Amino acid sequence: VEKNVNRKSCSFIYWGDTVNERNEKIETLLKNVHAGLSDPLTDPVKRSLLRGDYLYFHYGCDGQDDRGWGCGYRTIQTMASWIYFNSSLVTKQETVAPSLPQIQKALVTMGDKPGSFLGSKEWIGTFEASLVLDFFYDVPCKVVHVRGGGAELEQVAVEELHQHFEKHCSPVMMGGDRDNSSKGILGVCTGDRGSYLLVVDPHYYGRQLEETELQRRGWVSWKRVSSLDQSSFYNLCLPQTAAERK
């Protein structure tokens, strides 16, 4: 994979033997799909964003139809792509992200999942994300549990995210119980009347869209923290990448 921070898209292949198994299928994914998106507040008290390049992984982007179950895997791949582009410890002969089958195989190898997990359509969440990023990239993750309710989300989650982006700069995975849709979090913006999260949604399925169209359709957008399910708990997977930055 050619490393070029000025390109708006990037071709990729998967780790190891999977390339041969997939007949050397190469895809082109958009890079930095939040670029150009307006801030949600004209005069924020505090604004913290990721820094560095990443690719937008979503349902079906590699030809595998994972609608209904693959959102956690796709968010992990987006996080992995950031590590690939921004970590001094990643060998550039390696590839941008592990495939869905390789993520499943890694979780079985680690003993987190039984052998029957291979080839299944079982969901995975923030805890599995922490295991996978450590397995493939030696990047430890901090997993934060946030109880439901506006106060916990506005205080605990928002403050954790501000601290994370200021120190570690990398994308975050967010998921919950009642709200069990995986989300990639790329930033947080706080004003006098609440906070917003910059969300990259892996649930898009279809032909590749330009980032402006993804933004117009809401696949990449700022969402008010108060719009989240107040009865759901949420977990955050925060890659501890401060020491990995170039």
TrEMBL record:
Coiled coil: none annotated. Residues 47-237 form the UFSP1/2/DUB catalytic domain. GO terms for molecular function: deUFMylase activity. InterPro entries: Papain-like_cys_pep_sf, UFSP1/2_DUB_cat. Belongs to the peptidase C78 family. PANTHER family: INACTIVE UFM1-SPECIFIC PROTEASE 1, UFM1-SPECIFIC PROTEASE 2. This is UFM1-specific peptidase 1. It comes from Cyprinodon variegatus.
